[in-house]
Amino acid sequence: MWTLVSCSRSTSNPATEPGQPTTQEPDITSDDTTTQHKEDDELMNKTLSLKIGNTEVDVSWLDNDSVTALKKLAKDGLTIEMHMYGGFEQVGSLGTSITSADTRITTSPGDIVLYSSNQIVIFYDSNTWAYTKLGHINLSKSELTNLLGDGDVTITITLK
Fold first, then answer.
1. Is the pTM of this model over 0.85?
2. Which has the closest alpha carbon to 61: 49, 79, 75, 51?
3. Which domains does the chain have, with CATH numbers?
């Protein structure tokens, strides 16, 4: 035995009938979208600047989605407390997760990478692990060891 059940077709919407609450979509105007695009363009035309302690260092930043996300975080300045780890790197939390594309790489002294989407790592020696590369500090291994190899440091990332 088969039973066929059907629902009636109604052209009324209970949410628009008298006495029923109504919902409204947010009003997003083209001016809001244009303003956001303008802010994004201005942000992307700026470059990141890195200070280790009070020393500004020359960095060659990559052009990838993670660096773009880092620029957005650094818009108002970003200060990160870094901690020595393993005798070859300094690690600090971004306080939030950003876009990453981890691949297994062997780092070189001066490499700046993203680890686990939420930690920035600066190397003064090398290591092999899965990271997203952000850039490279243009200093020698001995200069990097002097800046990074003698206790915890604070870094500041800003936009110029």
1. no
2. 49
3. 46-159 (2.40.100.20)
Q: What are the structure tokens assigned to 153, written together?
A: 């440091």
Here the tokens at position 154 are 């604070």
Dihedral class, residue 74 (left if φ above 0, else alpha if ψ from -120 to 50, else beta)? alpha
Rounded-to-integer distance, Cα 157 and Cα 154, Å? 10
Give the tens place of pLDDT for each residue, 90-149: 999 999 999 999 999 999 999 999 999 999 999 999 999 999 999 999 999 999 999 999
The angle, 0 to 180 degrees and rounded to 10, between the axes of the packed helices 65-73 and 30-44 is 100
- For residue 86, give the 3-state DSSP assignment: coil
Counting every residue written for the chain, the total comes to 160
Model confidence over 65-88: pLDDT tens digits?
Answer: 999 999 999 999 999 999 999 999
122 and 89 in contact (C-beta within 8 Å)?
Answer: yes
Q: State the burial class of residue 103 (Cβ atoms within 10 Å of its Cβ: 0-12, 13-18, 19+).
A: exposed
Q: How far apart are CA 25 and CA 11, in angstroms?
A: 21
Each residue of 5-59: pLDDT tens digit?
A: 444 444 444 444 445 444 445 555 556 666 666 666 777 789 999 999 999 999 9
